[in-house]
């Protein structure tokens, strides 16, 4: 039937072939969608590993701005408007940010609530005013002493081995680009 092509039936045959092709593509698309939905449903049933990863994802996908260092409120640098801040790159296991004057970066290790920051590399800008250089030193010392962290909502706390809060950070929800 489909091999019979003459001028009278040419348009009908092309129309039938087109319809068959559309039906085949629709069926394949539907089959792939069903298979993909089944795979996604299986993955979402794993609750305990997903729950522990969600907290880590929140730590990594935000800019954390320091509000307190050693219990003292942090004020931004009057000249630059910068505050100490930190971000974590989960893939590279690196952190980067600022100390209120200089840019900082380094490596880190984390497991559960344990957090160890590696040696800190810093730019060497001239910080104007004693308050800024003191703030930079206090922040660097607090980061070096960090052994644990607590994450609750939009607040992150770095703790030392005795459980004392060294730095308190907040994050702001940033709109997607």
Name some characteristics of this structure.
alpha+beta, Lipocalin, 3 helices, 10 strands, globular
Strand content: 25-35%
User: Can you tell me the number of structural domains?
Assistant: 2
**Shape, please?**
globular
Secondary-structure element series: HHEEEEEEEHEEE
Poorly predicted segments: 30-56
Q: Please identify, by name, the CATH architecture of the largest domain.
A: Beta Barrel
Helix coverage percent of residues? Answer: 25-40%
Strand-pairing-aware structural class: alpha+beta
Number of helices: 3
Distance between the termini: 56 Å
Quick check: average pLDDT?
A: 75
Largest sheet geometry: 10 strands, antiparallel
- What's the alpha carbon Rg, rounded to whole Å? 28 Å
Mind telling me the CATH class of the largest domain? Mainly Beta
Total strands: 10
